[in-house]
Amino acid sequence: MILVTGGAGFIGSNFVLTSLTQADESILNVDKLTYAGNLNNLQSVSHDARHIFVHADICDNERMLALLMEHKPSAIVHFAAESHVDRSILGPAEFVRTNVNGTFSLLEAARSYWSGLAGADKAVFRFLHVSTDEVYGSLGPNDAPFSETTAYAPNSPYSASKAASDHLVRSYFHTYGLPTLTSNCSNNYGPYHFPEKLIPLVIANALAGKDLPIYGDGQQIRDWLYVGDHCAAIRRVLKDGKPGETYNIGGWNEKANLDVVHTLCDILDELKPADAGHSYRQQITYVTDRPGHDRRYAIDAGKIERELGWRPAETFDTGIRKTVQWYLDNQAWVRDVQSGEYMKWLEKNYSQRDSAANTNQQGAI
Ligand code: NAD
Ligand code: TYD
After folding, report:
1. Which of 31, 36, 131, 138 has minimal Cβ neighbours within 10 Å of its Cβ?
2. Residue 80: other Cβ atoms inside 10 A
3. pLDDT at 358
4. 292-344, pLDDT tens digit by residue?
5. The pLDDT of residue 321
């Protein structure tokens, strides 16, 4: 059995679902069910005896230790986090609480549990910390992609809190010998992605006839990876990764935000055409840039390919098409997520943001 934290969120739920179907792995899923956690993501496995859901906060160290002692997992895969950069700018405290203190609480519980193990149980145990490429900061246009030896330079409260948690994990390996693994992944996309993030937000807004907000000039670059590929990479790291090591995971797929949004609009124009003569591109609206917005992320995923034999299976073309189709097929999921208090709060905060280039956008098409 694996203990997964944050398994009701975007990547965590994809990991739980694919681990049950593709790897026949039993899962103890520990999630606080914040605004980003959604049990509907796990509906298809709600009667699967191999999946146990526990509603708990990773900051509750005693509870974490009790769960470990009761279920005796062979590994922890730690996804639980506050994950949205814009939200971290509006309110960083929760990011420090969950991402830093929560990871510390979980590490302490893991150390205590692991110290009490013996023989093969102790030898096989792993603590896999799921992190982000954002800890490395921002690249210039001609810089080489981030490698595992790139110096940390986090720029947002989100990335700073993840960087702090990465350092704690590193220290538990070096100081206590806890067999940790850390993966730093680029931007994910795919099913169950919460519509506060660029790709699901643009799909949802396009279909609702709303503006598609582009921060600044839309030329910021992200390295997109299909979530199923990320989950497969995590399973590979868990199985074959060397304790104490970190692994960068990415899609070899750098795209400017505006190009991503154009692609989404074009696929939607094809799969779900709006009124005659209307392209979803006409809904693109330039808005004030995010403070401290990182210009470019790109991952050198060479180490995980060389040492563990992992490469992404999806191209951006295949992954993004599947994703748009998933959102078209799962409008009820989107409506349900959007009906929550958090989306109303988010919308209110962002509607107050002034429109930089206000009018459209024709020039961007
Ligand atoms: P998400 O926001 O969709 O889900 C986070 C989950 O964690 C939710 O289910 C939430 O309820 C749970 N959670 C939050 N605080 C908790 C707490 N205190 N105790 C227990 N559960 C708690 O996030 P995501 O996009 O699925 O990201 C998962 C992990 O992957 C994060 O650690 C994130 O930093 C990392 N990551 C994300 C991306 C990405 O593109 N989304 C890329 C690289 C790394
Ligand atoms: P996001 O999905 O929030 O991920 P991250 O900030 O972790 O990379 O944003 C992806 C990119 O899209 C980022 O450069 C910010 C930009 N963006 C927009 O232009 N408009 C939006 O409405 C959002 C949410 C993001």
Report:
1. 138
2. 28
3. 41
4. 999 999 999 999 999 999 999 999 999 999 999 999 999 999 999 988 777 77
5. 98
d(CA 159, ligand 1 centre) in Å: 13
Q: How far apart are CA 136 and CA 146, in angstroms?
A: 7
> Does the CB atom of residue 214 touch ligand 2 within 6 A?
yes
Rounded-to-integer distance, Cα 38 and Cα 196, Å: 14
Contacts of 348 (CB under 8 A, 6+ apart): none
DSSP, residue by residue, 262-330: HHHHHHHHHHS--STT--GGGGEEEEPPPTT---B--B--HHHHHHH----S--HHHHHHHHHHHHHHT
Q: How far is CA 357 from the centre of its chain?
A: 30
Ligand found nearest the CA of 217: 2
The DSSP code sequence of 153-220 is ---SHHHHHHHHHHHHHHHHHHHH---EEEEEE--EESTT--TTSHHHHHHHHHHTT--EEEETTS--
pLDDT tens digits for range 252-270: 999 999 999 999 999 999 9
Number of C-beta neighbours around residue 87 at 10 A:
21
Q: How far is the CA of 90 from the centre of ligand 2 (A)?
A: 15
Own/partner long-range contacts of 18-21 (Cβ < 8 Å, ≥24 apart): 18/228, 18/231, 18/232, 19/231, 19/235, 20/45, 20/48, 20/50, 20/51
Task: Name residue, tokens 């102790």.
Answer: 122
User: Rounded to the nearest whole angstrom, what is the distance from the C-alpha of residue 316 to the centroid of ligand 1?
Assistant: 22
* Separation of alpha carbons 60 and 241, rounded Å: 28
Residue identified by tokens 């709006």 is 274
With CA atoms as reference, report the closest residue to 345 among 97, 111, 91, 148: 91
187 lines ligand 2 (CB under 6 A): yes
Q: Taking the mean position of all CA atoms in its chain, how far away is CA 157?
A: 16
Residues involved in catalysis: 133-134, 158
List the chain domain ranges.
2-192+225-252+296-315
This model's pTM is above 0.85: yes
CATH topology of domain 2-192+225-252+296-315: Rossmann fold (3.40.50)
For residue 340, give both structure tokens: 């929550």
